[in-house]
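Cross-posted from the bioinformatics board.
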Amino acid sequence: KAGVTQTPRYLIKTRGQQVTLSCSPISGHRSVSWYQQTPGQGLQFLFEYFSETQRNKGNFPGRFSGRQFSNSRSEMNVSTLELGDSALYLCASSWTGGKLATNEKLFFGSGTQLSVL
Amino acid sequence: AQKITQTQPGMFVQEKEAVTLDCTYDTSDPSYGLFWYKQPSSGEMIFLIYQGSYDQQNATEGRYSLNFQKARKSANLVISASQLGDSAMYFCAMREGLGGGYNKLIFGAGTRLAVHP
């Protein structure tokens, strides 16, 4: 069974540009979450999607957005990139997003390492 | 507010010995789940073990066990018989509530474990 797939693995952009990251969840998983990981702030929750609807959102500016398609694949977009957006962006999937049980595991991808120059 | 604290930025252990990684948490929700993830240099977060707030017994998964002390709000990870491949970052995380928060996990800052031969 294929794991969570994130593309691209590495990305280099310049300030002011926009970027789109992609995530394919494990087959059958309908919940997809995104996290930002930086050395200074650690792992922070960005947003979570379930059945194409955003159910929860972290404390990030509106430049960060996402969407989920009918096949549960998800994309996140960052517009007007800033130097501080340089980070590892991790995608995670699970069956229901923990709606039915707190012990539902999240399965993570290897992440997209974004560097903003 | 919910919070996870990992007070050990770095730990080292001799191969084949046991090591304990500390985690304390803070929440007012009576229903919550605690997770430990391992992050090797490749970036992927690997699930290790889960403990639910209502679980009566400490969780175990192979060489991993969780020392859960609910009254003290601590959930320490014990790795027995350390292996060189255990060298990685270890994160403690919490999900609150049945159906609430969904996959918004709160992560600690992590502990970097180095296993020496």
